[in-house]
Design goal:
Layout: E1 3-6, H1 10-23, E2 30-32, H2 35-41, E3 47-51, H3 59-73, E4 79-84, E5 100-103, H4 108-130, E6 132-137, E7 140-145, E8 149-155, E9 158-163, E10 167-170, H5 174-181, E11 185-189, E12 192-195, E13 199-202, E14 206-209, E15 214-216, H6 222-235
Parallel strand pairs: 1-2, 1-3, 3-4, 4-5
Antiparallel strand pairs: 6-7, 8-9, 8-12, 9-10, 11-12, 13-14, 14-15
Helix pairs in contact: 1-4, 2-3
């Protein structure tokens, strides 16, 4: 597991490293004092502990740039756990799809709980990438990895499957695709099914994905989507609410 710790307080960086070493044998997290240093490293991480209030590029803006870089490179987003001494600051974290947050001073029990959730999410992502989706294209069948799917779009009696690499037209219905994909995908509109792992931003009318594409969000589904997405960020699980 590749882990980064970015905080302008040396004591916090060292504390998180020590807590990690207690929970994960042989872990070697990389430590950064500023968001600019983390961005300059141009490395892909599975998990990042990121301070919100920092000199230079703050944690929220650093997170936005990390998301942009991942989208450009076609890489999976890191799990972001924000660190802050101001509780109110965590509300901004949801704009950049933060997984969770920790308040300073960091309590060991809370750290252990959040880390456990993050590790479970990483395992679910790994399993999702392995999940196979079988689709029919004309007179042949094709297997895709569910983790590569961005969203599904209805095209009459067909669907258009948008992946990280291409778009594929297939003979299937939205109901069939929704049933086959299950957890982690949300029917945000009668004509769209979105992979919540690739959600970057949303408002009451649309969802923006990490590659910049936008899909419709039905107004009557907005409240349910927000609840489902918050649940997904906490637990990595899609839930009908």
């Amino acid at each position: 597991m590749k882990i980064a710790i970015c905080d302008d307080e040396k004591t916090i960086r060292e504390q998180i490293r020590e807590l990690l070493e207690k929970e994960i044998p042989n872990v070697c997290p990389e430590l950064y004092e500023t968001g600019d240093a983390l961005l300059a490293a141009e490395k892909q991480f599975d998990l990042i502990f990121l301070d919100i209030q920092m000199a230079g590029t703050d944690g929220i803006e650093t997170a936005r740039k990390l998301r942009e870089h991942s989208a450009l490179k076609g890489e999976e987003d890191a799990i972001l756990i924000f660190i802050t001494g101001i509780r109110e600051a965590v509300f901004e974290a949801f704009d950049v799809a933060a997984f969770h947050y920790l308040l300073k001073p960091i309590a060991e029990d809370k750290f252990r709980e959040v880390l456990c959730r993050a590790r479970k999410e990483l395992e679910k992502r790994k399993n999702k990438r392995r999940q196979a989706v079988f689709i029919k294209i004309r007179n042949r069948s094709v297997t895709l990895e569910a983790g590569s799917l961005l969203y599904i779009e209805s095209r009459g009696k067909k669907v258009e499957i948008h992946t990280t690499g291409e778009s594929i037209e297939a003979y299937s219905s939205m109901n069939e695709m929704e049933g086959q994909l299950g957890e982690g995908f949300y029917r945000c509109h009668r004509g769209y099914l979105v992979n919540m792992a690739y959600v970057a931003e949303y408002d009451s009318e649309s969802i923006t994905l990490q590659n910049g594409e936008r899909v419709y969000l039905a107004k009557e589904k907005y409240g349910k989507f927000v609840k489902a997405y918050m649940r997904y960020l906490r637990n990595g699980v899609h839930a009908d609410v």
